[in-house]
Amino acid sequence: MFGLPVSRGVAIGRAVLVASSRVDVAHYFVEPAHTGAEVARLKHARDTVAAELTTLKNELPAEAPTELAALLDVHLMLLHDPMLADATRHWIETRHYNAEWALTAQTEVLARQFDEMEDDYLRERKADVEQVAERVLRALAKEEALLPQVTHARDFGGEDPLVLVANDIAPADMLQFKGSVFKGFVTDVGGRTSHTAIVARSMDIPAVVGAREASRLVRQDDWLIIDGDAGVVVVNPTPIVLEEYRFRQRQSELERARLNRLRHMPSVTLDGQAVELLANIELPGDAVNALEAGAVGVGLFRSEFLFMNRNGVLPDEDEQFEAYRAAVLAMAGLPVTIRTVDIGADKPLDRMAAHELRHEHALNPALGLRAIRWSLSEPAMFRQQLRAILRASAFGKVRVLIPMVAHRSEILATLDALARARQQLRDACVAFNDIEIGAMIEVPAAAMTMPLLLQHFDFVSIGTNDLIQYTLAIDRADEAVAHLYDPWHPAVLRLIADVVHSTLAAGKHVSVCGEMAGDTAFTDLLLGLGLRSLSMHPSQIASVKQRVLRADTARLARSAQATLESADPATTWLGLQERQTQRSSSTAV
Ligand code: PEP
Ligand code: MG
């Protein structure tokens, strides 16, 4: 099976299918000590459904068709059938899935078995199993989830390594799997810079997205190889194939260990240009990885991840402040750039919070109320976040970054909100430091009017993921148009070059924090375009640094200029680099 390679390396493990259910289903692990209580929770929900079905049956009007009573009997029988009841319990006990996850996993197993049946009557029973499971899920939803939920389940989940397979995984769900048992994942949908792919990269586990049929073809517990370099997924490999991939796995581990030695080396090019390598983080806990990887600061803290998986209760000012302060303290004096929430598009709020904020499904979410647009539509919440960020500035070097700015009115409203937040803190005698304010350049309109924008901001950071999406009108999360999502497009390169040029001409700081910054295929080009600051996942820092150490920026600037003038930039750039490699090897001889 083929898909888009989004996170490097090879993973080998047993498939765990996360079914996409019609009911919102949480997926998390429960502590081994709590599995008994989780089984009891499932049983309680089943008893509730049994009572519901019995009442329904007893209250059937006399004139009701007899099939209806028979159907309710079938549902009651299925509810207690060992294929559903015992097997679901088994997933909880052996894999420590929460009850909802265990039930959807088992329903999926049964649905496949029904699909393969010859007999039409039996095949149609699949719908009954799904209906019964859905009733139990609804009953579970009404019960309190057991606490604590375990998301950092490194130590359990069974003996074999596990890999995750799903139609789609929301970034919020991905976040729950961060630091968990999974060694890799595959999804049917998604693009290279979708937020699901981004979280996978931040987890540093091999991943393939856009594999179309994966969740339909793979079965629960199949052995899988996920090749995150080539975008290949092998199902139940032969021993020879398995051995080949195990060899590659060992090779890439050796390569990682080698790169790791560069961690604390200064990042300076051959011609003496210092290049700042910063980290992108999603949660305060990631700051530790950033430091370990040798980052000299956080260039992008995607604060919206604090707003996900909240069951409708969003973090208040104090909770946000604690989170920002934790990141600032962990970075021990290094700068932390906190981006205000970028909720919307492929990072929706959970259903309950969205309902509360009247932010339900938009027709075209990438063009809708997201990022700064959303913040400005919720002024009290926006000021709350700004106050929390300002308060964290008393504990270290903090910068604030505004996503998706495009309009002068948005800029003025943002500055006004910041001024008010400052005033509120002053009135309440709360300490804060002055912080720099930066704009993310993600919309062509902003990139094309830099002199206007730069009047209001201290620094800018180029969000290439969105800049490419909006320049080329390609949904970054849609695998159907992934082949057209092209960072090499002349329009994209020209916009980046212009933004760098005008920002440096204004004497201000410019960085790139989109996925291009951590992709070694673009390091030389970005240096050639004049960039000296790149922000990426901590796991990418070492390999980007290796490129920096070998770079000659004067030569790269000449190649970049020729590339900008070319009708086919990718070919021009690669041709120039190849010629240079040949020249260097012939002089070496
Ligand atoms: C970007 O758009 O490049 C960016 C860094 O922001 P995000 O990926 O969170 O949209
Ligand atoms: Mg963006």
How many individual β-strands? 17
Judging from the principal axes of the Cα atoms, what is the shape? globular
Compute the CA-based radius of gyration: 26 Å
CA(first)-CA(last) distance: 43 Å
Bound molecules: phosphoenolpyruvate, magnesium ion
Please summarize the sheet with the most strands: 8 strands, parallel
Number of helices: 23
What fraction strand? 5-15%
Strand order of the biggest β-sheet? 16-15-14-13-12-11-10-17
Mean pLDDT, to the nearest integer, reads 89
- Structural class by sheet pairing and helices: alpha/beta
- Uncertain runs: 146-157
Helix-residue proportion: 40-55%
Write out key terms for the chains shown:
single chain; 589 residues; alpha/beta; 8-stranded parallel sheet; 7-stranded mixed sheet; 17 strands; 48% helix; binds phosphoenolpyruvate; binds magnesium ion
